[in-house]
Amino acid sequence: MPIKESEFIWMNGEFVKWWDAKIHILSHVIHYGSGVFEGIRCYSTNNGPEIFRLKDHLLRLKNSAKMYRMEIPYDIEDLRKITKELIRKNKLESAYIRPIVYRGYGTIHPDPSEVPVEVSIIAFDLGKFMGEEKFNKGIEVMVTSWRKFAPDTIPSLAKADGNYLNSQLALMEAHKYGFSESILLDYFGYVSEASGENIFLIKNDILYTPPTSSSILEGITRDSIIKVAKNLGFEVKVEFIPREALYVADEIFLVGTAAEVTPVISVDKIKVGDGKVGKISRMLQEKYLKIVEGVEEDKFNWLDFVNM
């Protein structure tokens, strides 16, 4: 998916032109992946652009940085105001927002303790992450041969740059074999998550999703869907999920900021249900979009309007 360029990027306290947003080739983050980031969506509504769960995303960014002993030189409220100003300066009604905190120039040593912490925020138009057709009709996925990293290796709860080397391997394998996405198993062989999304299974009208102990990112969209589903009267169980449960699920869908709520219609060429988007998946997808687009009442206080 090509990047749709905007006019400005915010870097270390100032708004710079898109192509002037540069770092040194010896920046620590390039050599060692020493950065953490967020993916946030801004939606167009009748009340102007709104950023979905902005404070929650920025809090997770702060916590990710904390795990890697990085002190962000801005507080959450500063970053919130800067993000809104970036949306306004770029004249965006809807956008994908990428704040990133990273170790800059200072040493070639793996220990980054003395390397300055830098902060940038990017915002640009994105559209549907996997395309409108796949969003509406569902995707085919495979269980990848690559496993999620084991507990006590690197923190899965941190949304860290280096974690996504694992995701890259899994996704490249899936694309090589003609699938849209991959599902990774955890160190113990239970279902973990997709390369960039959390996963939900539905069986007998009950939603199942893996626990954080299955090396998943504690997704904000995942949390949103759990709350929405419970509000609609569905039971949600967070528990270990064996691989074979994927093959006998009535419905499966993936959730994430970029992917939103994307239905899955087959796993390893085995149909999920009847091979079409399930009714509960569709219901949750539509409900989620109505909330984030400001069509329905924001019962959960998730919408942060740019111009208010």
Written account of the structure:
- With 308 residues, this protein is an alpha+beta fold.
- The chain folds into 2 domains: 8-124, Aminotransferase class 4, branched-chain amino acid transferase, N-terminal domain (D-amino Acid Aminotransferase, Chain A, domain 1, 2-Layer Sandwich), CATH 3.30.470; 132-292, D-amino Acid Aminotransferase, subunit A, domain 2 (D-amino Acid Aminotransferase, Chain A, domain 2).
- The protein is built from 8 helices and 17 strands.
- The protein is globular and about 55 Å long.
- The model has no long low-confidence stretch (mean pLDDT 96).
**CATH-assigned fold name of the largest domain:** D-amino Acid Aminotransferase, Chain A, domain 2
Give me the oligomer status.
single chain
Helices and strands: which structural class?
alpha+beta
Strand content: 25-35%
Just give the CATH class of the largest domain.
Alpha Beta
* CATH arch. level architecture of the largest domain: Alpha-Beta Barrel
Average residue-wise pLDDT: 96
Outline, from the CA principal axes? Answer: globular
Estimate the helix proportion, in percent. Answer: 25-40%
Number of strands: 17
CATH superfamily of the largest domain: D-amino Acid Aminotransferase, subunit A, domain 2
Provide the succession of SSEs. EEHEEEHHEEHEHEEEEHEHEEEHE
